[in-house]
Amino acid sequence: NPIEYKEVRRHVNLNYLITLIQDIIYERTTGKSDNANANWDMIKDIEVEYNYNDAIDKEYKKLQQLLKSSYEIKNMLNSQIKKSVTVKGKPIKILDKFYVTSGIRITEKEVYHNEGSFPCVTSQTTNEGITWKANKEWLKKFTKNNKLVIIDKPCITWTKDGIKASKMFYRDYSFYPNDHCGVLLARNNNINLKWFIYTYQQLVSSHVTAKKSQGMLYEEQMENIVFVFPDDSSIQKPITDEYQKLIKIKNHLEIFESEIKEQLKKIVI
């Protein structure tokens, strides 16, 4: 009824009401595909405690605007971080600067029976790829080409397969790589590992091949990627420093966003 609607509209802030019931409606939705359904009969009995007032609304909108601004700044930072850096120098293969290798397969069941505190890296990218913690003495039993699989020097690892194949990480601690974790070990000290990641992540990612939507970047592909190594190797550090400044700002923004979201939850509650 239009008259009834006007009365409700006059006393209820619809934007605030959405924040109260949105998650509840999602929970009641049947299915999660394109054919998901949340009809009136499924949601009409939702009960909420409506404590809206103008002060709450102003605070809520203020926090929302801060969150929006933070997203916009972070998007600009991401664009800067992803920009290619022009390097003047000699084209060489990754194999010319790195020893390229990977680890040996271990299973979750094996780790369960050999638990410990030593990090094991797989192809996942959450938690920087550290999937398990295992017993170091047990891991010392694994060798490849007569060398321990355990890596005990600064290096770069990359995800060999999966949705985020090619994703690189800098590691300056001892760890065990499994067979889905590729490893780049510098042949000498004139290459800055962080500089390589910041400058060439995009290039490395462009060499991923797919088989049935499963991304792949194995050792032979990686070692033959051609990149430009600078004639003046001293430029690597200032470039790295600039990238790290941007990343530090981005990390602060993400903390800021988390705090705002917590405040928004409190306002809704």
SSE diagram, text form:
Layout lengths: L1 H10 L2 H15 L11 H4 L10 H29 L6 E5 H4 E5 L5 H6 L1 E7 L8 E5 L1 H4 L3 E2 L2 E2 L6 E5 L8 E4 L4 E2 L3 E6 L6 H13 L3 E3 L2 E3 L2 H5 L2 E5 L5 H33 L1
Parallel strand pairs: 3-9
Antiparallel strand pairs: 1-13, 2-10, 3-4, 5-6, 7-8, 7-10, 11-12
- Termini gap: 30 Å
Q: With helices defined by DSSP (H or I, 4 residues minimum), what is the helix count?
A: 10
Class based on secondary structure composition and strand pairing:
alpha+beta
Strand content: 15-25%
Average per-residue pLDDT, rounded, comes to 87
How does the major sheet shape up?
4 strands, antiparallel
Radius of gyration: 26 Å
Instruction: Give helix and strand order, one letter per element, not per position.
Output: HHHHEHEHEEHEEEEEEHEEHEH
Task: Give start-end ranges of low-pLDDT stretches.
Answer: 1-10
Side by side, the strands of the main sheet go: 2-10-7-8
Shape: globular
Overall number of strands: 13
Relative helix content? 40-55%
List keywords for this structure.
single chain, 269 residues, alpha+beta, three-stranded mixed beta sheet, 10 helices, 46% helix, disordered N terminus
Can you describe this structure?
- This protein is of the alpha+beta class.
- The protein is 46% helix and 20% strand.
- The protein contains ten helices and 13 strands.
- The protein has helices at residues 2-11, 14-28, 40-43, 54-82, 94-97, 108-113, 136-139, 193-205, 219-223, 236-268; strands at 89-93, 98-102, 115-121, 130-134, 143-144, 147-148, 155-159, 168-171, 176-177, 181-186, 209-211, 214-216, 226-230.
- A four-stranded antiparallel β-sheet has the order 2-10-7-8. A three-stranded mixed β-sheet has the order 4-3-9. A two-stranded antiparallel sheet has the order 1-13.
- Strand 3 (115-121) and strand 4 form a beta hairpin.
- Helix 4 (54-82) runs antiparallel to helix 10 (236-268) and helix 8 (193-205) crosses helix 10.
- It is globular, with a radius of gyration of 26 Å.
- The model is unreliable at 1-10 (pLDDT under 50).
